[in-house]
Amino acid sequence: MLRPFAAYLRVYEPLSSFGDPPDDALLAAVERSELTPGEAIAREQWLWLKSQVSDVHTLPAELPDGRPGPSLRTDVLVLDPGEVPVSDDAIDLGSEPLVCPLEIRVRSAAALSSFLDDAPPALQTAVLDANGLTVEAVKNRSHSALQDLYGSTMHVLSTNWIVPLPWFTVVDPDQRRLVLGSGPSDPIREVSWRVAMIDARTRIAEAEELIRDALGDEAGPTRVLTETHRWLNSFHPDSAVELDYGGLVQLIEDPVLATDTTADDVHALLEGLRRGSLEEVTEAFETLRDYWGDLASRERFN
Predict the structure, then answer these.
(1) What is the predicted pLDDT for the residue at 83?
(2) Residues contacting 216, CB < 8 A, separation 6+
């Protein structure tokens, strides 16, 4: 089965951030550490499909009576701090496991709330009527699910069909993790980066200042950088950040994926802004536009 064509930005916090002591079910899940990022995507997909065939309207990872399923405390990704590159030997992420809760029910509720806020009235009415639901009932269910957050915000952001280019400002291009596997359909296929939170915050702050000076506060890239920077500041300073192409790797052939220079090009664009070099900025932007234009166009046909 194809994985969703979605990319992910994840935050892994130190285990102690989840309670003192953390919940027993969470401790046991961290000890088992069963899921890889690829398996987590498949897990999300399975829970979503399960919720769609249920006789009772539920969110993914939700019981028929509206309570969260037991996976709320057990669907987690775990990193060893030693797996996270750092820019400076003085940066110490400690020794305890770094944990990213998938928070599937919460994220689904947030997406549903966004749909109710943003969908055209005719589409909203058609969807609700087809499922025998009211706006008030859906909002109440979503609000209840959002109470399951471990902290003040979700640990995972996702986007369909493309990776927001501002996300690349937080990573070191040279730290790319590339696994081609046997081809686009191989479940182990991966492109990702990991970065210490302190490095991610430093880089995005610098990028935000450069882009704001060049494009202004209301420009799309500025808003994405501002929102992402605010999101990163919600977490423990000893956390780690992971940028993952997720299911997008299924859309890109081996030679193209192996030579992907998106992270380099984004940082080249920023360097061009630092130098005041319009030529460098234009060259990097055109490379990015050509590479991601094909993937972006697929969204219009789906």
Answers:
(1) 94
(2) 222
Helix runs in 64-192, H state only: 104-118, 121-130, 135-146
Helix (H) or strand (E) holding 302: none
| The residue count for the chain | 302
Q: What is the pLDDT of residue 107?
A: 86
- Rounded CA gap, 224 and 164, in Å? 8
- pLDDT of 54: 67
Query: What angle, rounded to 10 degrees, do the helices at 220-232 and 197-215 form?
Result: 160
Tell me the whole-structure pTM to 2 decimals.
0.90
* Pairwise CA distance, residues 191 & 195, whole Å: 14
Burial of 242 (0-12, 13-18, 19+ CB in 10 A): buried
DSSP letter string over 33-48?
----HHHHHHHHHHHH
What pLDDT does 250 receive?
93
Residue 99 CB burial class (10 angstroms; 0-12, 13-18, ≥19): buried
> Quick one: pLDDT at residue 222?
94
SS3 content of the chain, % helix, strand, coil (to 5): 55, 15, 35
CB 285 within 8 A of CB 269: yes
Q: What angle do CA 153, 30, 193 make, to 5 degrees?
A: 60
C-alpha–C-alpha distance, residues 239 and 79, integer Å: 10
Which tokens in the block code for residue 75?
């669907």
Positions in the chain whose pLDDT score sits under 50: none
Pairing of strands 240-244, 190-196: antiparallel
Q: What is the DSSP letter of 68?
A: B
Report the Cα 213 to chain-centroid distance in Å: 27
Q: Residue 77: beta bridge partners? A: 100
Q: Phi and psi (nearest 5°) for 228?
A: -70, -40
Let me know: does 191 contact 175? Beta carbons within 8 Å.
Answer: no
